[in-house]
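[step 3/7] inverse_fold.run input=structure_tokens len=196
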């Protein structure tokens, strides 16, 4: 398990989940950790099992100084494009924090416009503890949302691939056509719509 950096001061880590899927919202989280209440086991959410992510998400909610999760909808993704919708979800998450951070550290190579200094950290979810915590909250909230959508639209297998473009998902798209929660601006969905 890597030794992640815990930034000094009121620094919020920001990360997202769901940029690549063909369906569902993009979800962002912002977390300000409490240095006095460390959380062992934090890491990039993609490197953790579902069980470990769920357990850590509960600890993050309990021990963080502040945390928030927000999203941008499928409609916003299609209207703005996925990059701008992701930035919007990140802005919303920071705006919902109960404490105003002094600065932000964002996973990736771009920062949303925020009312504070922000630094982009490539692969930050594997380096910075607060970004790792944000990645875990964003991923667990988005996965829970996709399981709820699976109950509404069971043909697509959202419970297995969470909306990502797997072979099974693309085959289901061909068979059933896009659902209301599919992103119409994404290539495989747009292609199916053009055939209707």
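[step 3/7] decode complete -> sequence:
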């Amino acid at each position: 398990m890597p030794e992640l950096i815990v930034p000094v001061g009121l620094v919020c880590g920001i990360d997202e989940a769901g940029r690549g899927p063909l369906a569902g919202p993009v979800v962002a989280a912002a977390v300000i950790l409490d240095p006095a209440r460390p959380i062992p086991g934090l890491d990039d959410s993609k490197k953790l099992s579902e069980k470990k992510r769920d357990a850590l998400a509960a600890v993050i909610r309990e021990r963080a100084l502040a945390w928030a999760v927000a999203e941008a909808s499928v409609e916003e993704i299609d209207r703005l494009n996925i990059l701008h919708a992701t930035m919007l979800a990140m802005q919303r998450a920071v705006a919902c924090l109960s404490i105003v951070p002094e600065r932000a550290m964002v996973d990736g190579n771009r920062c949303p416009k925020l009312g504070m200094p922000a630094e982009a950290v490539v692969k930050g979810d594997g380096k910075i503890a607060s970004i790792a915590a944000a990645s875990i909250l964003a991923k667990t909230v988005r996965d829970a949302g996709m399981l709820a959508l699976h109950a509404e639209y069971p043909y697509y297998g959202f419970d297995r691939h969470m909306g990502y473009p797997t072979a099974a998902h693309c085959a289901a798209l061909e068979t059933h056509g896009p659902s209301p929660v599919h992103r119409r601006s994404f290539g495989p969905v747009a292609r199916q719509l053009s055939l209707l």
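[step 4/7] annotate
The chain has one domain: 11-152.
DSSP finds seven helices and five strands in the chain.
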